[in-house]
Amino acid sequence: MYINAISSYLPEQVVTNEHFARLNGLSDQWIVERTGIRERRKAAPHENTNTMAIEAVRQGLALLPYPVQEIDLIVGATYTPYDTIVSLAHAVQHDLQIPDIPVVSVSSACSSLLNALEVVQGYFCMKKATRALVVVSDNNTAYSNDEDKVAGHLWGDGAAALFLSADRVSEGDFKIVDILTGGAATAGKAMEGVVLKPKDGGFVMPNGRDVFINAVVYMPRASRQILGRNGMTLDDVDWVLPHQANFRISKKVMEELGLPMDKLLSNIQYLGNTGCAGCAIGLDENKYRFQKGDKIVVTTFGGGYSFGAMLVEA
């Protein structure tokens, strides 16, 4: 399938590490050394997961090479819902005023982007849709505690939209060659590595080390797997876009793959961990940087544990 347009939305408010230095004594140097993060975006009081999703979609409409009313499937993805009944996908459908089409929302932590795309792949394969919209949005700061010295400084907010078709629409389309996803709930401390219980304190990360260990196993493994089953090797890869959880994790993924750092795409330094939106935002940020024929590996790992990889050709 093909990506016809990509767009994203970031809240205006920038939260620097100075905020956490004042709040709980974590220095800028300490945070940067351990996470790579210098600043992150925070949704305004009037914003939420649904409003950011809508804004991300609106940003992409001018880029769309066909009438928006041709969209016949909307899939939303988030693990920080504003409303568990009126999902972000329904909010987007209402804003676009496209009636009576399949509207689905999925959640598998920070891997949700790839699960959402895989749902679209299934609809396309079954001939149940031909034009789709995937929208990913996470309002992490609504659930995070800035005073938490373990994880409070990690989170940022943002959203992105990918407009997709079963067949190529224009020469500028990016081809999604393949997607794989998986659950790793049997690995390590998957059930407690990082959790979000809205009625029980929000984000908690009691086993960050275990998350790190498994992330740097599963993301390289999934990357190799998707290349192998498509007859490619790491030498064919032009760019790697891993889940934006921690810059040290991204560096370790590149080391495990034996690829140079100049092939790494990263936005965690100035956006923080934007959840399942992070990789999609990264694709949007770099879409004009990619050369025709470039091979991009997107790989994810999330709480639960979940993992995945996607092979994209520019």
Word description of this protein:
InterPro entries: ACP_syn_III_C, ACP_syn_III_N, Thiolase-like. This protein is of the alpha+beta class and 314 residues long. It folds into two domains: 2-165, 3-Layer(aba) Sandwich (Peroxisomal Thiolase, Chain A, domain 1); 174-313, Peroxisomal Thiolase, Chain A, domain 1, CATH 3.40.47. Helix content is 31%, strand content 25%. It contains nine helices and 13 strands. The chain has helices spanning 17-24, 28-35, 49-61, 88-96, 112-125, 208-228, 247-257, 268-271, 278-286; strands spanning 2-9, 13-16, 39-42, 74-77, 103-106, 131-139, 157-165, 174-183, 195-197, 202-204, 239-242, 295-302, 306-313. The chain has a nine-stranded mixed beta sheet with strand order 5-4-6-7-1-8-13-12-11, with helices on both faces. α3 crosses α4 and α6 runs parallel beside α7 (247-257). The two termini are 12 Å apart. The model has no long low-confidence stretch (mean pLDDT 96).
CATH topology of the largest domain: Peroxisomal Thiolase, Chain A, domain 1
Radius of gyration: 18 Å
Q: What percentage of amino acids are in beta strands?
A: 15-25%
Instruction: Quickly count the helices.
Output: 9
- In whole angstroms, the N-to-C terminal distance is 12 Å
The unreliable regions are none
Please give the structural blueprint:
Layout: E1 2-9, E2 13-16, H1 17-24, H2 28-35, E3 39-42, H3 49-61, E4 74-77, H4 88-96, E5 103-106, H5 112-125, E6 131-139, E7 157-165, E8 174-183, E9 195-197, E10 202-204, H6 208-228, E11 239-242, H7 247-257, H8 268-271, H9 278-286, E12 295-302, E13 306-313
Parallel strand pairs: 4-5, 4-6, 11-12
Antiparallel strand pairs: 1-7, 1-8, 2-3, 6-7, 8-13, 9-10, 12-13
